[in-house]
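Hello again, I could really use a second opinion on something today. I owe you a coffee for this, so here goes:
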Amino acid sequence: GMPLVGLASSGWALFCIFVAYGVSDAITDVSMNVAGVEAQRRLGRTVLNSMHGIWSIGAVSAGLIGSAAAALTVPLALHLGTVAMVCAVLALLVARSVPNVSGEIPAQRQAAGSNFSPALALLCGLAVLAALIEAAPYSWSAIYLADDTGASPGISDSPPSPPRW
């Protein structure tokens, strides 16, 4: 869905794209952490910290690539489309090595997970709000740098002239 950001024609369209992207990102984040906990259980040692470290390297790398693309004035739709295709190919390659653990869940754990819990729903809602609070500064800092400080596209990681809705 990320290439849709470059094609948004209005502020509302961009808002809807970001909401959908944020929801899918949160779902993916939870599933990756569950897979990490399962990997720790199977290996008998801590690996989740290493996984989060690799994620951080990926986040910094993505920021550098985005800054370089902005500095080179690569069209946003082209940049995001290319990144999406590369990520899709990598995901397909990596998916072959991910074990299927769905059949290994004990029956008592399956039954316990089938009950709705208002407390868990509240915790999930708080987690979403925390993610929004965490994401807001780095998501909007590029626009602030470009609009208010006049930073170049390579520094602000935003298009040279961001659209105004």
Notes: Confidence is low (pLDDT under 50) at residues 158-165.
